[in-house]
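From: lab user (bench 3)
To: helpdesk
Subject: output format question, protein + fructose -6-phosphate

Hello, I'm new to running complex predictions and I'm not sure whether the block I got back is the full result or only part of it. Here's what I submitted:
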Amino acid sequence: MCGIIGCVSDKDCYGALYDGLKRLEYRGYDSAGIAVLGEKLSVFKKKGGVSNLSAFYARGGTGIGHTRWATHGAPSDANAHPHRAGKIALVHNGIVENYAALKAELEGEGERFSSETDSEVIAKLISRAYRKDLLSAVREGLSRAEGAYAVAVVAEDRPGELVAAKNKSPLVAGKGASGLFVCSDIPALAGTADFIARAEDGDFIRIADGRIDFFDKNLNPVCRDFTRPREELRALSVAGGGYFMRAEIGEIPRALEDTLSALKNADFAPCARALRSAERIFAVACGTAFHSALVFADVAEREAGVPVLCCTAGEFRYRPPVIGEGDVLVAVSQSGETADTLEAVRLAKSRGAYVVAVTNIGSSSIESLADFCIVMRAGAEIAVAATKSYNCQLLCLYYLAAQLLFFKRARLPEWFSALDRLPEAAQAAFSCFAEADALADRLKGAGAMYFLGRGTDLCTAKEGALKVKEIARVFAEGYPAGELKHGSLALVGEGFPVACISTCAALLKKSESALAEVKSRGGYCALFSQYPRALAESCADFKCLLPALPEALMPAVAVIPLQYFAYKMCIGRGFDPDKPRNLAKSVTVE
Ligand code: F6R
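Helpdesk reply: Thanks, we reran it on our side. This is the complete output you should expect:
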């Protein structure tokens, strides 16, 4: 959600904070702010993007910055962080769940608030506890807060010192030539920090006297290892400008290649026992990652004959799930920090289940919680809309499904060797872009559309619809092709667009019937298939030939023209594909 950064440097830190916020902007971009501590504490905060801060400057080596994704209180200058209270300034990512009660109590004691945020409440609590010892004050102030937080705090009479703390929201510390840092995540420090260390829940970090120290919840010193950030997380700019989303779609073949070689070198033996004996598997994730989990559920159940229950992480927690010892939970998260997914993992672990995680970010929270973690090699994904990470998630999950079969039945699926061809097939899918472009141009004025599919094609349809909704801001629904006639056909009239993904030979005719139902009501039909004959015989108005792979693997390539289609729709409608409205890259609140 929000991005926080803090810096202590022997040079002016404004530039480092500003650049850091620019790199963090994918976490939220409805307002931004910086506090710099020099001869005095100066706070600048503005509604809108980080670039609004370029109008300000202050000298000083200690500072904090924030880029906001609003939860409590609308985007406004007043609700933007940093929040000042007495001598301190604070930036916060997370949600203080008991903020209303705390605020009422503080107001009863005469405190006046200048924002509607939950964050200002903790700023006040820390300020009231502050008596020259910033670390103790942060601890005391936060001891009353329930919920998730990562905070960074400075005090106007303590230049050269910064204190940060975390509970359930991500926080890393970094050391680089331009200073010592705390930050919401590793990719945003890439290129700035040469060494990074991830804080654990309950940790406090103090930067002072040229060093970074970690403390546990009782303020006893603890050791956290500093390591070099992975090479592929370093470059965060698009060569030649342009949009990250477009560049990241272009990186899919490379990302698949890198992920494939990482998988080939991975040792799955540690999870052999759990997979071999698993009688039930649960798969959880959110958003795009959930769609990859749906594909996994279909493929793993079919191949290994194990029931796989797939559920969005937010729903899983409140069912409550019948999960326990002997079960395996597969949790998928690009960022490794999604609050709902992490809570699902914690719940599964507390019931004795074995957890396998798939993530793009090594040393993320999900990796530290899981019993076994598969780290894909998609590289930093900056555009908010997930693209290359989805393809790589699918690859990892195919691999996992294959291991499941191997451990259970001592054989690999028929399609296993074709995984080697996935990068090449992804590259071949780029030849669909000209058609996807034309389709986007035709449909950019549409008010709504359906994406139809059956089996794993339904997962692709859902992912295509999500991309269109989030970046092109067109209502879209991924729908089972066979369900259309049970009510939803009511929306289909003259020109209503329906895209159908049909990659399963046994279901081609069924999908075609759905398109015929649409066509006979005047709808506009688009068909995506790797079967030339299916396309030739279809009544569709628009036809796109996909590269061919074994059917089980088709979701990893069939989605590529849909990702590109959504991107082009978005551009055609005049929106920024890298910054969808009301979305954040990493959803660290529930
Ligand atoms: C959509 C998108 C989101 C994420 C979801 C889960 O393009 O990016 O739907 O997929 O918020 O995020 P992760 O995978 O980081 O857990």
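A quick orientation on your result: The radius of gyration is 25 Å. Let us know if anything else is unclear.
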